[in-house]
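We store sequence, tokenised fold; for instance:
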Amino acid sequence: LVAAIRKVHSAHLAVRSINLSHILSTTDAAASRLRVRLNCVGILDALEFETRRHVADLQVADIRDLGWLILSLATGTEVTAKSDRTTFAQCENFLAQNFSIEMRNICMTLIKSSSAPSIVDLSRAISGRIYDELDTAYRSIDLTERLLSSEYESGR
């Protein structure tokens, strides 16, 4: 998700549709991988053509929405800026009890910070985790190659 948002923001645009109902995930059991896609990107630009806002403001809103999305996915409860304080406090406690301090700090910074970090700053903050994802991707590729090779050899 961060990579997709970063790509949109680098084109000086905003996603404007980061919420649970606009995130698509597909799994490929053979390759054991998960693909995450953003849906409805740009739809609000078409629907709200007359009410233009500055792109910088929209990008900050994207970052905040990403924070709410992360909190919702982590807790299994749909939480938005319009949720009541009790629900938010319960979700924040759940996050603190079940996830790393780094995850909690990133999520709360995205939601609560008076000046939200840019998507580039967020990318830097999670860069250590990217290596874990690359390792998983390489293991998946190796498994696929091994399975394909064994099928090829058994076909001889």
Summary: The CA atoms of residues 64 and 112 lie 8 Å apart. Strands lie at 23-28, 33-38. The longest helix spans residues 127-154. The mean pLDDT is 85.
